[in-house]
Write a structure and sequence with these properties.
InterPro entries: Transcr_Regulatory_Proteins. It comes from Colletotrichum gloeosporioides (strain Cg-14) (Anthracnose fungus). Keywords: DNA-binding, Metal-binding, Nucleus, Transcription, Transcription regulation, Zinc. This is C6 zinc finger domain-containing protein. The protein starts with a helix and ends in a 29-residue tail after the last strand. A 3-stranded antiparallel beta sheet has the order 3-4-5, covered by helices on one side. Strands 1-2 form a two-stranded parallel sheet. Helix content is 49%, strand content 6%. With 473 residues, it is mainly α. The chain has 15 helices and 5 strands. The protein folds into 2 domains: 127 residues, no CATH class; 342 residues, no CATH class.
Length: 473
């Protein structure tokens, strides 16, 4: 709120989001189903001045007066933002740039205007590039695989310290949805060297600990995504990849002990405990992804089946711990920029080759709210199930998926009118001529691929009824 009082772009963006929330609040009681990138009644606009054209069209182009006010405020915010782009960071602080960009992205998320979201993420990243420590590569001949631990320093007056990871992390995580492109330029500019600063349980406040985790997680995602792009091109690992992998694994083990210590505090508030439980899930994700990196065949993931099972158990426990009010689908105007539960579930579907765990994760994806992590869970589940379908076609006689039959999802496009996802997949094993082997699938959002028919499975993959999930709380 303090930022909105002194920055016109932030002020107009806050007013725009408030106004459009008023419009949508009473329009989300019906038809609140997954698999749509925009709330009912909204028409995305962007690029060529669509918002201005709608304003000139008169009342017929608006859902109500709140909708009209929202677009007016948003256009004023965009106008100020464009002026800032021309001036670079000289026109505003890096902190303001991050806040402005995230607010504009939030409005476009609500509108369902994903092209503008993608463009805003790319623009925001370029504007903060010189001001963020997450965007500067560091190297040292003294680096080793053992972490040089530095405990968290006392809080300092740094306008970027608490939020600098938010936009880079959002940009990188958008790449895992396969519906965005701006992250491709971000990866090459990201610092994937593990951050050495760690919190001290009992000394470092939880809020500061969450910031430190956010920075570490962002660097780990940058490392992982850089490797995945190398893997899809059938290239050897970068020269420093093995060193960085060892460093990340060392830090991830330290973070596990740190989280357990924080969670052991009996005086921890329920909301804070849930936030730490979410971090625990994401720490396990990164441990598995980093551990299996540098293996271009993806066969290394097979050694982590128990980790995938634990990931699913923790996710299920997190979902079951919701209050009765939270167990109902969230409003379409409700979403967060956090990584959410789509991340562990899509990781299980894509990287765990245990059929039952994959199908259980897909089932939980369909049970998530519409905007977990701001991404459409149903469309993600459909796209990931395309990987399952391609891989299980190539199962051997013992029910295992060999290296030559492993695939990754690389690109996707929406066809909202037909309710379809047009997805592109790449086989991890190149063809006989050494060329990339790809596949294109047109998938029905409302009728996902049959992940059980190919293997003669009778279905019934309900993790809520699986005693093996160990749901003691």
């Amino acid at each position: 709120m303090a930022e909105s009082a002194r920055d016109p772009c932030v002020k107009e963006s806050v007013l725009a989001i408030g106004a459009i929330a008023q419009t949508l609040f009473f329009r989300t009681a019906r038809g609140n189903t997954l698999g749509s990138t925009q709330p009912p009644g909204m028409k995305p606009w962007g690029g060529g001045g669509g918002g201005a054209e709608m304003l000139q069209a008169g009342a017929a182009g608006f859902l109500d007066h709140h909708h009209k006010a929202a677009l007016q405020h948003h256009l004023r915010a965009v106008s100020v933002y464009r002026q800032r782009i021309q001036m670079g960071t000289a026109g505003s602080s890096p902190r303001s740039v991050i806040i402005m960009t995230l607010l504009l992205i939030a409005f476009e998320f609500i509108q369902g205007n994903m092209k503008s979201v993608d463009s805003l993420m790319g623009t925001g990243m370029r504007l903060i590039e010189d001001a963020s420590t997450l965007m500067k590569r560091r190297s040292s001949s003294r680096d080793s695989e053992e972490p040089q631990v530095r405990v968290a320093a006392p809080p300092r007056e740094d306008e970027m310290d608490d939020i600098e990871h938010l936009l880079p992390c959002l940009s990188l995580m958008s790449g895992f949805t396969h519906f965005f492109n701006s992250h491709r330029a971000t990866i090459s500019r990201m610092n994937s060297t593990p951050a050495p600063e760690l919190p001290q349980p009992g000394v470092t406040p939880v809020a500061k600990m969450q910031v430190l985790w956010g920075k570490f997680f962002t660097r780990a995602v940058a490392y992982t995504m850089r490797w995945m792009h190398t893997q899809m091109k059938h290239l050897p690992p970068p020269a420093d990849a093995a060193r960085e992998r060892g460093q990340f694994l060392s830090y991830l083990r330290l973070w596990q002990a740190i989280l357990e210590t924080y969670l052991a505090d009996p005086g921890l508030e329920a909301q804070t405990r849930r936030a730490l439980e979410m971090i625990r899930i994401h720490r396990l994700i990164m441990y598995v992804l980093v551990s299996a990196s540098l293996d271009g065949s993806d066969m290394a993931f097979d050694a982590h089946e128990e980790d995938f099972r634990e990931m699913l158990r923790l996710t299920l426990r997190f979902m079951r711990a919701d209050t009765p009010e939270e167990q109902f689908p969230l409003s379409r105007i409700a979403f967060t920029f956090a990584e959410g539960l789509t991340t562990p579930l899509t990781t299980i579907i894509a990287k765990c080759r245990n059929h039952d765990l994959r199908m259980q994760a897909a089932g939980l994806m369909r049970a998530l709210s519409w905007r977990d992590g701001a991404w459409d869970g149903k469309a993600l589940a459909v796209g990931k199930l395309g990987v399952v379908m391609l891989e299980e076609r190539g199962m051997d006689m013992e029910g295992r998926i060999p290296a030559a039959a492993r695939w990754v999802w690389t690109d996707a496009k929406w066809d909202l009118e037909r309710r379809e996802v047009v997805a592109t997949y790449v086989r991890l094993a190149p063809g006989e001529d050494g060329q990339v082997v790809s596949a294109h699938l047109v998938l029905d959002i409302d009728s996902p691929p049959d992940g059980c028919g190919l293997v003669g499975c009778g279905g019934g993959h309900d993790p809520f009824e699986d005693p093996g999930m160990g749901m003691e709380l």
